[in-house]
């Protein structure tokens, strides 16, 4: 019993340390981490750099790959969000993580985007570039989505899984990005 009480008290102290005294919501605990700088080609060969973040109050960056059924299935939902958010100065960018690995992968990604009616920009990162090697290659689950503010900071932790099922989290992070 003594061991149980000790474990319980330790757990309460640990939880208290993470929640903070008097915290009203989890929003105050959101971190801001710089999104890595990049200069990559989109699916049409146009250069997109990390400077694009400064043009919007917030940017949703969705990482997907050609073999991810959930990623492909959510593209029409992301397109709908993209259209809805444009009026609010919020952008959405896709990153086809394997689309830069060769012509066959690039063509497959382009075909998927066309079939799903995607109009938002999609970056095709080169495996030769630092952005791919030090950031993209570290993503272990798809889809993975980040919210980035106008200063190029990631707001909170990555959002893994279908975006539409996590709209409350997306909206909260967008609000925090716009502050």
From TrEMBL:
InterPro entries: AhpC/TSA, Thioredoxin-like_sf, Thioredoxin_domain, Thioredoxin_ResA/DsbE_sf
One matching Pfam family: AhpC-TSA
GO molecular function: antioxidant activity; oxidoreductase activity
Organism: Candidatus Faecivivens stercoripullorum
CDD domains in the cross-refs: TlpA_like_family
Range of residues in the leader sequence: 1-23
All copies of domain Thioredoxin, residue ranges: 29-179
Gene3D superfamilies: Glutaredoxin (3.40.30.10)
UniProt keywords, alphabetically: Signal
This protein's name: TlpA family protein disulfide reductase
Keyword Ribosomal protein: no
Lineage of source species: Bacteria, Bacillati, Bacillota, Clostridia, Eubacteriales
């Amino acid at each position: 019993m003594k061991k149980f009480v000790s474990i319980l008290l330790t757990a309460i102290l640990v939880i208290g340390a993470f929640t903070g005294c008097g915290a009203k919501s989890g929003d105050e605990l959101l971190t801001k981490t710089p999104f890595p700088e990049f200069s990559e080609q989109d699916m049409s060969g146009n250069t997109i750099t990390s400077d694009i973040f400064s043009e919007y109050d917030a940017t949703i960056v969705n990482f997907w790959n050609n073999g991810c059924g959930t990623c492909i299935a959510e593209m029409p939902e992301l397109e709908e969000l993209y259209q809805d958010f444009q009026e609010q100065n919020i952008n959405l960018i896709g990153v086809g993580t394997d689309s830069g690995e060769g012509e066959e992968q690039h063509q497959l990604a382009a075909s998927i985007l066309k079939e799903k009616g995607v109009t938002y920009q999609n970056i095709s990162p080169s495996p030769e570039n630092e952005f791919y090697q030090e950031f993209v290659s570290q993503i272990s689950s798809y889809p993975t989505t980040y919210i980035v503010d106008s200063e190029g900071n990631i707001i909170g932790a990555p959002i893994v899984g279908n975006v539409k099922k996590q709209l409350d989290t997306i909206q909260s992070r967008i609000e925090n990005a716009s502050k």
